[in-house]
């Protein structure tokens, strides 16, 4: 049974009970009046005794109808607000003159909605913190594993390659040149071992920690280049100036340096490498130059993940990267990053 039907039925019952009460009271007060007289008295040709209960019932029906409509509207309002809470949306009480009961319910629903919103915010915050914590743990595990692999490769494979290179050099220097083919093959083996050493050093360079770990870019670059100069026959020169930089810019420039030096070790066959980091005219300039065999920049850019990665890193910090390479002359890589003053936005 709907709310309106129930209210109409209640209105009819109340009206009928009121009619009975009034009738009993009237007959008790005027006992001399007979029912026959009331039946004979007519209004619009309808017995008076029938008009009174009919009017009472109609009044009860109409009052019950309006009461049911009003009550249904109020319950519909409560249902709408509860639906908003169910959907997770906030709401404002729009009823101009709600009844005291409905207003109390609305206030409680609003309080529940605010509590739910606070719980949602707390849950999202905990989820974000959990994700960030998990990401930090993963990065820490990756960093530890990279360091472990670098140490093991350096202590085992790298040392063995170094020993093999020394033995081949000794064999080639002491062996009499009686067999030209055999001497050529031994030289080829020595060259292959030397190239493997360069590949291994390039790999170890990639396995170094990405972050500078508290060092400035100048300190990181000098440490990297000095360590490399002790392990390769290539002549390495650098000029690095000290100036303040944002952490994000330092990390990206350091990774570009690592990638560039790694490519030089693996592919350039260079005998000399020069690195430069300066600040001129509000531009950070990092330049890496070698005298290797060079390459086709357009062709390699299309198919090389390393080159594309360097371009992307330069763009991410608002800079530009330019590579000029001439075959059998060498390669020059230059990154320029504008220094932004406080309050400026890079276009």
Largest sheet: 5 strands, mixed
Estimate nothing, just give the exact number of structural domains: 3
CATH superfamily of the largest domain: Histidine kinase-like ATPase, C-terminal domain
Low-pLDDT ranges: 343-347
Give the helix proportion (percent range): 55-70%
CATH topology of the largest domain: Heat Shock Protein 90
CATH class of the largest domain: Alpha Beta
Mean pLDDT level: 76
Describe this structure in words.
- Helix content is 66%, strand content 12%.
- The chain is of the alpha+beta class and 347 residues long.
- The chain has a five-stranded mixed β-sheet with strand order 3-4-5-7-6. It has a two-stranded antiparallel ribbon with strand order 1-2.
- α7 (247-268) links the parallel β3 and β4.
- α4 runs antiparallel to α5.
- It is rod-shaped and about 155 Å long.
- The two termini are 68 Å apart.
- The model is unreliable at 343-347 (pLDDT under 50).
Question: Which key phrases capture this entry?
Answer:
347 residues; alpha+beta; Heat Shock Protein 90; five-stranded mixed sheet; two-stranded antiparallel ribbon; 7 strands; rod-shaped
